Amino acid sequence: MNMDVIIYHNPGCETSRNTLALIRNAGVEPHVVEYLKSPPSKTLLRQMIHRADLDVRDILRVKGTPYHELKLDDRSLDDDALLDAIMLHPILMNRPFVVTPKGVRLCRPSELVIDLLPPQKGEFFKEDGERVVDEHGRPVASA
């Protein structure tokens, strides 16, 4: 199926790799944006956060980032200040963000991407071995 899909991807992140693989399992070759090398503009990121029905704080990554050194837990910081920090340190942006004609979503866990895509083409297992799509392309209910 020809569907325009963009994934803001970090190849070093297992969740991001699983999300990318699920997109491809639906027969879609997405535009892959390695956001650590090519982060979205502040305006675009603000739009994606809004379209995903999130707040800027919802997308902040704490682990493995300068979150604490930058004192981003300070509740007096407004969205502009938080977005400026992400522009300077893209690692602060949680991932992966996926943009499709069906919507925008921060895909954590990776199977959140399934609703944004055409049907899955077949069985899918995450890198850790968890089965998330059966042999008929249907999502598997979590245990």
Question: Low-confidence stretches at least 5 residues in length (pLDDT < 50)?
Answer: none
* Overall outline: elongated
The largest sheet is:
4 strands, mixed
Q: Count the strands?
A: 6
Say which CATH homologous superfamily of the domain at 1-35 and 95-143 is assigned. Answer: Glutaredoxin
**C-alpha-based Rg, rounded:** 16 Å
In helices, the fraction of residues equals 10-25%
Strand order of the largest sheet: 2-1-3-4
The topology string of helices and strands comes to EHEHHEEEE
Distance between the termini: 31 Å
State which percent range the strand residues make up: 5-15%
- Which structural class do the helices and strands define? alpha+beta
Q: Residue-averaged pLDDT, rounded?
A: 95
Q: Using the coordinates shown, work out and report the CATH topology of the domain at 1-35 and 95-143.
A: Glutaredoxin
CATH class of the domain at 1-35 and 95-143: Alpha Beta
Question: How does this model look, in words?
Answer:
- The protein is an alpha+beta fold.
- It has a domain at 1-35 and 95-143: Glutaredoxin (3-Layer(aba) Sandwich).
- The protein has helices at residues 14-25, 42-51, 79-88; strands spanning 6-9, 31-34, 97-100, 103-106, 124-125, 131-133.
- The relative contact order is 0.22.
- The model has no long low-confidence stretch (mean pLDDT 95).
